[in-house]
From TrEMBL:
Keywords: Metal-binding, Zinc. CDD domains: M1_APN_like (cd09604). It comes from Planococcus koreensis. The active site is at E319 (proton acceptor), Y396 (proton donor). Binds 1 zinc ion per subunit. Zn(2+) binds at H318, H322, E341. This is Peptidase M1 membrane alanine aminopeptidase domain-containing protein. Its cofactor is Zn(2+). Residues 306-456 form the Peptidase M1 membrane alanine aminopeptidase domain. Pfam families: Peptidase_M1. GO terms for molecular function: metallopeptidase activity; zinc ion binding.
Length: 458
């Protein structure tokens, strides 16, 4: 061959190699499930509680445009506005009372709209990709007695979804109406500074690293890589507390005035956290708070659990497992609730089976949930396509049992934990969807898994 032909062939090979590398990188990015939120935020929030139990809040939110298009407005979830029968059908709890007093963009008052939990703030000028804008929102908030998540009880205040939460931008702001079935808000990881001023001293438990348990009436907490900032103000006269160290994380437990409950909860919490750390992967955060207020809900670095012995295994373990699957491995809880709830329930069952040496006991909760109502045909339905009973039987019941049966035929508990560990390593601090899960599942196991996956996932 002539030198010219060799040169052409060499260039062609280089070109083909470059294409192969590009395809491999693209496939890896797709495999990694790095779902983009389109925008990110740094929050600086000042919170003051007056003598009438009304919160006065000023939220400064620096919003960065991480998309490739300009923003004409900025979208937030403002959940307090939806916590009433007028905005949310079939709302059965006491209503929250909130009033937005001022909204500004870069220091100038700006128009906004608020419907259900969708708050859209207009911008004076389009926010270009790579740029940021400071939004300031001032409002008052009174928590309902015995409310849904956002609530107060006997001068204990539980601040859940209480601030304007930046939404996902995906060809527009992706904000669902508030849904009573599950969690209908999808928010990205952000940085938080929260300053508080209170009329009396409270124990403060939050998504940030709060440190030594001591009552205070003012202070500041900071946290990073938090996607949903929760804060509780606890009346010190009504709570016992315990702090234990597990694998580099301090676990702070707050329980009603019941020493036996505190001791039992501490024992199981230590064991569960250590099990998930060792079997699934490291939780990098320095603190996890556990509050026994019958809230039954997970938040970043803090959970609400039952206030009775009977719920320790079923609720406490489940909410701790959520720190791995919901928080560190993220998903859209409206579109893919099963990705955190079903996998969390599966992980909880693996712990309970190991802890008590009884596999059937580990899956008792899932078995009971499945028997409560006929499950849906597919697990990965959005919240608004579920009826409430079938949501429970499908997501908390059938799906964990499907995973149990699959792994029973492929190495059992050891192989299940190895899979969850690889899954956690791959997706931590990212957001994935059902297709990402299916792709990872196919890559992890030898052979075609499509028949199995398609039998329960659309």
């Amino acid at each position: 061959m002539t030198r010219r032909i060799w040169t052409v062939l060499a260039l062609a090979l280089i070109f083909l190699a470059a294409i192969a590398i590009w395809i491999a990188i693209a496939a890896q990015e797709k495999k990694a499930g790095a779902t983009e939120m389109g925008a990110s935020a740094v929050y600086d929030i000042e919170l003051e509680l007056d003598n009438e139990d009304v919160f006065h809040i000023s939220a400064k939110i620096e919003v960065a445009n991480d998309s490739d298009v300009a923003f004409e407005d900025i979208g937030f979830y403002f959940v307090p506005n939806a916590l009433n029968p007028k905005e949310t059908d079939d709302f059965y709890q006491e209503s929250a009372e909130s009033e937005i007093e001022a909204v500004s963009s870069s220091g100038a008052d700006t128009p906004y709209s608020l419907e259900n939990n969708e708050l859209l703030v207009e911008l004076q000028n389009p926010l270009q990709p790579g740029e940021s804008e400071m939004i300031e929102i001032s409002y008052s908030l009174q928590l309902p007695e015995g409310g849904l998540r956002l609530s107060q009880e006997d001068r204990n205040f539980y601040l859940a979804q209480w601030y304007p939460m930046l939404a996902q931008y995906d060809e527009g702001w992706d904000i669902q109406d508030f849904d009573l079935t599950g969690e209908s808000y999808h928010t990205g990881f952000g940085e938080f500074t929260v300053s508080y001023s209170l009329p009396q001293e409270f124990f403060v438990a939050s998504s940030a690293d709060d440190g030594i348990v001591q009552a205070s009436s003012s202070g500041m907490v900071r946290g990073e890589r938090i996607k949903d900032f929760y804060m509780a103000l606890l009346n010190p006269a009504q709570w016992l507390h315990e702090t234990v160290q597990v694998e580099g994380t301090e676990i702070r437990l707050f329980m009603p005035l019941d020493q036996e409950l505190l001791e039992s909860s501490t024992e199981v919490a230590q064991a569960a956290f250590a099990f998930f750390e060792e079997s699934i992967g490291d939780n990098p955060f320095p603190e996890l708070d556990i509050i026994g207020n019958d809230g039954y809900m997970e938040y970043p670095n803090i959970v609400e659990v039952g206030a009775d012995e009977a719920s320790i295994d079923t609720v406490l373990v489940h909410e701790i497992a959520h720190q791995w699957f919901y928080y560190i491995v993220g998903n859209d809880p409206f579109e893919d609730a099963w990705l955190d709830e079903s996998i969390t329930e599966f992980a909880s069952a693996l712990f309970l089976a190991d802890y008590y040496g009884d596999e059937s006991y580990g899956y008792n909760s899932a078995e009971m949930a499945m028997l409560s109502e006929k499950p849906e045909r597919y697990t990965n339905l959005p919240l608004d396509e579920y009826s409430d009973p079938r949501y429970v039987s499908t997501v908390y019941g059938e799906a964990p049992l499907i995973l149990r049966n699959f792994f029973t035929e492929r190495g059992g508990q050891e192989e299940a934990l190895a899979f969850l560990s690889a899954y956690y390593t791959e997706f931590q601090f990212r957001f994935l969807n059902t297709e990402d899960f299916k792709m990872f599942f196919e890559d992890y196991f030898e052979g075609d898994q499509s028949e199995f996956l398609d039998s329960w996932l659309k």
